[in-house]
Amino acid sequence: MSGRLLRLACTAVCALSTLAATTPPDAGTDDGTDGTPTVAALLTDLQRLYREAEKATETYNATEEQLTKQRAEAGRLDTALARARASLHDSRTAAGRLARQQYQSTTDLSPYLHLLLARDPWRAVDQGHVIGQVARERAATVNRLTGGERKADALARRARTALDTQRALAHKQQKQRDEVTGRLDAVEKLLASLTAEQLTALTALEAEDARKSQDTFMASGALSSTAKNPTAQGERALRYAVEQVGKPYEWGAEGPDSYDCSGLTSEAWADAGTTIPRTSQEQWARLDRVPLDHLRPGDLVVYFPEATHVALYLGDGKVVQAPRPGATIKVSPIAANPILGAVRPDPGAPPMPTYTPPTLPDNAEDGSDEGYNNV
């Protein structure tokens, strides 16, 4: 999709939401008599398409995480199988050598007759001990050979299964990639019908809608009026996120040149030394919940009922986020999107005794804030 149309997509959806809230359902930029879609109809279609794209993206990200783990498992099994085959080769060589030695020393006389006929029976007894030790070593070699064959066979079966699973995940991932691009292509076609005048008006409405949402949230007292310091890791994760401001959103991306929203949060905390789940839904499900009035910089703020968007809390009622396709990483009001809750990647770590917030780059707060359920 072209960058221009993606930027149009970013602008159109939120503003259409505001128009729909203030316009009767049967109203729009046209009366519909000439076949032009009403604003309400455009809004319905855009929200549906973005929800579908969001779900496909979240599924894609989860599959990507599974595929990464599966590739590592397949590689581990391949290495173990190679070692088992090398050990099996050594065992077979040793067994062959023993077989040749046994054949060359074969005699029709039993060890008992050897003892009776020996000129020095005590020396024969000593030789018997040696022969016994050799026999035990031969038995151990045979056991190693048998065990090595079983281990190699089992590893070969597991390696084949791991490879089959990897191929199935890769195929699934490709289908999901096609689905996301298909959803975004549908958005492109729909937005191509909007005029320049509509887009200009929608940009202003979008900014006004974000401002009103933030004012209402801050007036509610949901955030504590007492500033809190981050942990050392939280501070590092936040600084990493701020350093990415201005880079583009790209679905499925984990940096360093572009990110989606959960790609930004997971990479920021990875840079701080803490591994967290890749997707916003898993971050919400698996990390420790924290009340909004206990938020500290570096915590993750999760949005929408299905936990399909996430940002890093900056402090003072603001977050750092990768909003949606066509937008760039930026600083946004915390309530620009509907808040589901917050989670903390390092719940047991103590806050820093002193803290200086990171310096924001120029124009860090420019651009659209709404995530529109894009992950």
Write the layout of secondary structure elements.
Layout: H1 3-22, H2 39-104, H3 111-117, H4 121-191, H5 196-219, H6 232-243, H7 261-271, H8 280-286, E1 288-289, E2 300-303, E3 309-315, E4 318-321, E5 330-333, E6 339-344
Antiparallel strand pairs: 1-6, 2-3, 2-6, 3-4, 4-5
Helix pairs in contact: 1-2, 1-5, 2-4, 3-4, 6-7
Please tell me about this protein's structure:
By secondary structure, the protein is α+β, with helices and mostly antiparallel strands. The chain has 2 domains: 1-211; 220-344, Alpha-Beta Complex (endopeptidase fold (from Nostoc punctiforme)). The chain contains 8 helices and 6 strands, in the order ααααααααββββββ. It has helices at 3-22, 39-104, 111-117, 121-191, 196-219, 232-243, 261-271, 280-286, and strands at 288-289, 300-303, 309-315, 318-321, 330-333, 339-344. A 6-stranded antiparallel β-sheet has the order 1-6-2-3-4-5. A hairpin with a 2-residue loop joins β3 and β4 (318-321). α1 crosses α2 (39-104), α3 packs antiparallel against α4 (121-191) and α6 (232-243) crosses α7. The longest helix has 71 residues, at 121-191. The protein is elongated and about 90 Å long. Residues 1-33 have low confidence and may be disordered.
